[in-house]
Amino acid sequence: SAYEHNPRTVTNIKYQEIKDSIRVRGLDQPPQVTRRPGEKKFIIRNGGNTRLSILRELYKETGDERFYRISVLFRPWDGERGEIIALTGHLAENDLRGNLMFIERAVGIENARAIYEQETGEPISQRELAKRLKADGYPVSQSHISRMQETIRCLLPV
User: Fold this and answer.
1) What residue stretch is flagged as signal peptide (predicted)?
2) Percent of the chain with pLDDT over 90
3) Chain-centre distance of CA 77, in angstroms?
4) How far is CA 68 from the centre of its chain?
5) pLDDT (0 to 100) of residue 11
């Protein structure tokens, strides 16, 4: 299944290019999947929702099994840190593969803040947020976080 907290909310600008490549070459890189404790379905662990959507579309169009049965890399759920690992993984992967829009990154980072605050049980500063994101593999400067929070405050209703 697709990761339900994927920061990408609009279609990847490279969607057709990726689809054309997968149609011709197949899937070059198997997606990583994981499974939350107690869940039956596997989910995409860090990036790959676009490829999953394309595979479903290509299978529907062609009926070709190579778009239905794919190899994946299983990664165990990361204990109590699973949600933040999945979210930061999706942020990083989406930035690398298809340029997230600024507002998508901002909302994703705000979601990460909420997860970190849930972990600690208290509010965290922008500096602490930047430190934690970097430690989890998604470095963002404190000044950039400040601009993102201001954007959310101005553009998105509470």
Assistant:
1) none
2) 68
3) 15
4) 22
5) 85
pTM: 0.81
Quick one: 148 exposed, middle or buried, by C-beta within 10 A (0-12, 13-18, 19+)? buried
**What is the chain's alpha carbon radius of gyration, rounded to the nearest angstrom?**
17
Length, in residues, of the chain: 158
End-to-end CA distance of the chain: 29
DSSP code of 46? S
Are 109 and 132 in contact by the 8 Å Cβ rule? The answer is: no
Bigger pLDDT: 76 vs 157:
76
Which residues are CB-contacts of 57 (< 8 A; sequence separation ≥ 6)?
19
Mean pLDDT of 108-125: 95
Q: How far apart are CA 127 and CA 124, in angstroms?
A: 8
Q: Give pLDDT, residue 47.
A: 80
Separation CA 137–CA 85 (nearest Å): 9
